[in-house]
Design goal:
By secondary structure, this protein is α/β, with parallel strands linked by helices. Helices cover 43% and strands 13% of the residues. The protein is built from 13 helices and 10 strands. It has helices at 11-22, 36-41, 43-57, 60-63, 75-84, 95-98, 103-109, 113-116, 129-141, 182-226, 242-255, 292-308, 343-360, and strands spanning 67-71, 91-92, 117-123, 146-151, 165-168, 232-236, 261-265, 283-287, 312-317, 328-331. Strands 2-1-3-4-5 form a 5-stranded parallel sheet, sandwiched between helices. Strand 3, helix 9 (129-141) and strand 4 (146-151) form a beta-alpha-beta unit. The longest helix is centred in the middle third of the chain and has 45 residues, at 182-226.
Length: 390
């Protein structure tokens, strides 16, 4: 399927990319060949291309009246979760789980899937061992299932799998650095656009301009926050944005080689045990809901944290959000959208914070695993063809 022509970077975004890549802070040693900052900065330029490619695919016959399972591994699994949160009746099941599930296991969580199922596979490279193996396994177990793949790499194995309809995103979404950044937001956005494309299209130009204009400021604030000694942080979000908190936590873990531990949680869930994770100096990244009724509970939790003197609160909220002088307010990028559509647009600040924490740990953000524990694509492992999952 031919995609639309690449959108040329506007001069404003070029300037922002340049500023980030130069890393003007004198205290930060920066490797000029690092790709991660540029891949974070390019996101508002690539989001319109993703919307266009999904619209051009025109797939109503696949997404209508079907039992949908969204799948992927690692960050792609979190993208699947973000999409499923917006899609009534859809389920997100990681490929790392589907690979070892039987037809009965799948039927238990998605009863209509065998008769009227659509498997949507999400992948950056399409080369992870599970990606193709899961497609083949579902084709064998449940042969009536339809298959759609959304990929960033048109040359990957998943993009050429037999019996799979494919949407290839702009090749620039195929992040070359180890951690997925623009790959995550664009895979998530593509899935959201399958069902909510018209609603997203109305606001996307405004959101893209807003994010592009704020990237330099976000970068400076993330740099400043990272200057304090940090070995842990908490990331709070509503259940509809749980994938945002989980993905942001993974970025911190990956980019710091585990030297900074991040805990993802909901605001109300934090009280039930995870509150013990916080110290007085623990950064707490708080993605406030766009729903005013939910925010009342979130505000109560933040008041409790202040009273208990737990955490340094970094609040991501709409313009006009009132916070004490002791907190830091970061403007939300898409507060006019419901939480279940905000994930791809709110992730850039968290990515930049993880990026700066990586630099503070004297790591190369493009390859932040000095002992080789993780790699850009998971190393091949044995696929047990005879496995029946029973």
């Amino acid at each position: 399927m031919a995609g639309p022509q690449h959108i040329v970077l506007n001069s404003r975004l070029v300037s922002i990319c340049f500023d980030i890549l130069q890393m003007k802070s004198m205290d930060v040693q920066y490797c000029p060949s690092t790709l991660t900052a540029a891949e974070i900065a390019q996101q508002p330029t690539l989001w319109p291309t993703t919307l266009e490619r999904v619209q051009a695919a025109h797939l109503p016959e696949l997404v209508d009246i079907r039992s949908v399972i969204l799948t992927g591994a690692g960050t792609s699994a979190y993208a699947a979760s973000a999409i499923a949160a917006s899609w009534p009746g859809a389920r997100a099941i990681p490929t790392t789980d589907l690979l070892v599930q039987s037809a009965q296991d799948i039927q238990r969580v998605a009863p209509s899937f065998a008769a009227n199922g659509l498997l949507i596979s999400l992948a950056r490279s399409g080369e992870s061992p599970e990606s193709l193996a899961v497609v083949k396994r579902i084709q064998q177990l449940l042969p009536s299932t339809k298959h759609l793949a959304i990929v960033c790499n048109a040359d990957g194995a998943l993009a050429h799998a037999d019996g799979v309809r494919v949407i290839c995103l702009d090749p620039r979404t195929n992040d070359r650095s180890l951690a997925m950044t623009s790959s995550f937001s664009n895979l998530t956005l593509a899935g959201l656009c399958l069902v909510h494309g018209d609603r997203i299209a109305e606001l996307l130009p405004t959101i893209c301009r807003r994010v592009a204009d704020r990237l330099a400021e976000f970068n400076a604030v993330a740099d400043e926050i990272s200057r304090a000694p940090i070995d842990r942080l908490a990331i709070l979000a509503s259940d509809d944005m749980r994938a945002l908190a989980t993905e942001a936590s993974l970025k911190v873990l990956e980019l710091t080689a585990g030297r900074v531990i991040a805990l993802p949680e909901t605001f109300l869930g934090l009280r039930h045990g995870p509150l013990s994770f916080l110290r007085d100096d623990t950064p707490v990244l708080c993605f406030l809901s766009s729903n005013p009724e939910r925010r009342r509970y979130e505000d109560d939790l933040l008041t409790e944290l202040r009273q208990k003197r737990l955490g340094r609160l970094i609040v991501i909220g709409a313009a006009g959000t009132s916070v004490p002088a002791s907190d830091r307010l970061i403007l939300a990028n898409a507060p006019e959208l419901p939480d279940w559509l905000r994930v791809p647009f709110e992730i850039p600040f968290a990515q930049l914070l993880a990026y700066h924490l990586s630099l503070r740990a004297n790591l190369n953000p493009d390859n932040p695993s000095p002992n080789g524990a993780i790699a850009r694509v998971v190393n091949p492992f044995r696929i047990h063809e005879e496995f029946d999952g029973a």
